[in-house]
Amino acid sequence: MLMTFHARDLTRPGPLRTAAGFALAALMLFGVAPAVLSDFRLGLLGKFLCFAIVAVGIGLAWGRGGMLTLGQGVFFGLGAYIMAMHLKMADAELRGDTVPDFMQIAGIRELPAYWVPFSSPLVTILAIALLPAFVALVLGLGVFKRRVKGAYFAILSQALAAAFAILLIGQQSTGGSNGLNRFRSFFGFDLSDSVNKRMLFFIVAAILLLVVAATRQLMQSRYGELLVAVRDQEERVRFLGYDPANIKVVAYTVAAFFAGIAGAMFVPIVGIISPADVGIVPSIAFLIGVAIGGRTTLLGPVLGAIGVAWAQTTLSESFPSAWTYAQALLFIVVIGFFPAGIAGLAKLRRRRAKTNSTDDPTTSSSEPELEPAR
């Protein structure tokens, strides 16, 4: 039996449009971007993709679950510092030293005990994947089981990000306020080699596509429907026999898992991680990108995070002091007047166009549309 489809099928919701969208994204990331961008610009795009991975998780927790997560810098920082610690120990081993170079300068002659496990690549990868998610699981159970939500949850998550940054500043064993930098290798690959830098970009691009695909599956599953129901009518969900706290914890944990992976890839791509990258300001910057792109959509957070990061990098070069005010103003305008973000505006425009065409009696299709067989 032969299957035929028209070009217009690619514009309708369904498997064909989804497959076409992922194929186009893969072509842009793996084909077009490396061909037209220099190594420096490709590295910048890789950095932006790390932010986009965090944004996908925020879109799931905030856009679908209604949890205003102002502390994603904590989980981003956990993944980043775990990766940075492993890379610094690997570099020290290549030089024949027992402690990283910055510890020698600070007078630390013995490797701290909590550094030792991360000398193993396998332990490092497992810790990056599990530790941020475990921390989010514990925090989520402690917060959501007590029915903390709304502004109280937002303030609590923001306080955690501030406390985490302050803790890192006071620790000489993690570089203090300077953080960790000057990484030479990435699991045996020389980071000064342009080929390996491109490899890092391809890795983070593949991770982003996998994260988007997994999030789409969650959104369209039974769990995704429950998550939206908890956001809109939490008490009704509880009345039906479900525990809203458990549903929120899952989304919060998944968002932390994504943020930890993004932080881990951020380190070799950018070459530095410091408390300034994991505190309140970066956590709010993650949220701004999601809000501008459209927090209730799948691709809105991705495009918003990349767009805001690109604008920050570009405009701050010319207007370093004015960019922060412009960013805050943009966030206020979007939240106040366009709460659904740019993606929401596009969806509203398509909905109005469809309504107008339906109400117009002179508009008709020459070929009747048939519903697929069930």
The total strand number stands at: 4
Order of helices and strands: HHHHHHEEEHHHHEHHHH
Low-confidence stretches: 363-374
Instruction: Tell me, rounded to a whole number, the average pLDDT.
Output: 85
Note the overall shape. Answer: globular
Helix segment tally: 14
End-to-end CA span: 17 Å
Strand order of the largest sheet: 1-4
What percentage of the residues does DSSP assign to strands (E)? under 5%
What is the CA-based Rg, rounded? 23 Å
| Quaternary | single chain
The computed structural class is mainly alpha
Keywords:
374 residues, globular, two-stranded antiparallel ribbon, mainly alpha, disordered C terminus
Describe the structure.
With 374 residues, the protein is mainly α. Helices cover 69% and strands 2% of the residues. It is built from 14 helices and 4 strands. The strands form 2 sheets. Strands 1-4 form a two-stranded antiparallel ribbon. Strands 2-3 form a two-stranded antiparallel sheet. The chain starts with 14 loop residues before the first helix and ends in a 15-residue tail after the last helix.
Describe, in short, the structure shown.
This protein is an all-alpha fold. The chain has 14 helices and four strands.
Q: Which helices and strands appear, and what pairs or packs with what?
A:
Layout: H1 15-36, H2 39-64, H3 72-95, H4 101-106, H5 121-144, H6 151-169, E1 180-181, E2 185-186, E3 189-190, H7 194-220, H8 222-232, H9 234-239, H10 244-270, E4 272-273, H11 280-293, H12 300-318, H13 323-337, H14 341-359
Antiparallel strand pairs: 1-4, 2-3
